Amino acid sequence: MSSRFAPRPTRTTVRGGETAVPTGVPRQATAARTRTWQPPYQLDLGLTLGPLRRGPGDPTFRTTPDGSVWRASRTPLGPGTLRVAARGGAVEAEAWGPGAPWLLDGLPALLGATDDPALFTPRHRLVATTAHRRPGLRLTRTGLVLESLIPSILEQKITTGEAYRAWRLLVRKYGEPAPGPTPAQARMYVMPDPRTWALIPSWEWHKAGVDNKRSSTILRAVARAARLEEAASMDPPQAQTRLELIPGIGPWTSAETVQRSNGAPDAVTVGDVHLPGIIGHALADNRDADDAAMLALLTPYEGQRHRAARLILLSGRTPPRRDPKMRKTNIALW
């Protein structure tokens, strides 16, 4: 898990609160499928789904002032749009497009039903305090690999702002409009299908600021899309092994992917620029910790290291800022 996604969408907690009614959403004539689901636990939609958003302008992910979360996804059945919102103690969902049935079937897993926080035992006061203050945190499981893998590849070795820009530009230009209504003033798009990714011209990658190494990795991945999507049903270590068979995909990228696609509680991100220092500072007052030191500090959380890392990030205990370790290198300006 990377230090960059402390989730920021509007938070909606399901615990018998008020009805959430979409505001400013144009109601088109498109028929929606609906589902109401009662989670058997306290659920914070913002914390649970926040890691799926790739920056504030992500065209596949939106939130509205009423706390609703919108996602546009490419499912095995085709493109679909999903809106989830708190309504009393339940979650009400609407979905549009060919992928609507698949999205609604996967709603419980998306909202953490396959996650089991009871397996987690805090070993540090900071972690215990944060877990107590964030009882609605669940680990999402999308069941979709490419939609997490491609933006993770884009985020390799560059600043998050540059990666978010590339994702935004490519999805808007080569994706397709999300089915059904979407929030007012916020057009949404479904990411391109594998064939469309494969046909993006080299100069368009360049204009989006994506170098040849990352674009080539994406092209190799989409050429094996079906095999990679199978990883969503595997145990996380097996899923990571399959992803890492693709040249250019290493432990950092595979962990970032299976955290979302598989809901992997132990897939700790190694190779991150900031995460070791954040965890080292929080648990041992060592802001210069490297991956080895980070993994040693997380040893008491074996099996739940990703959850521990998320709670540490949510604690707000981060080291004082230094000069950036990574410069912006927008190749589109070359």
UniProtKB/TrEMBL annotation:
Tagged with keyword Nuclease: no
Region of interest: Disordered: 1-34
Gene Ontology terms: biological process: base-excision repair, AP site formation; DNA alkylation repair
Regions crossing the membrane: none
Cellular component GO terms held in the UniProt record: cytoplasm; protein-DNA complex
Keywords: DNA damage, DNA repair
Protein name: 3-methyladenine DNA glycosylase
Annotated source species: Streptomyces venezuelae
Source species, domain of life: Bacteria
An example Gene Ontology molecular-function term: DNA-3-methyladenine glycosylase activity
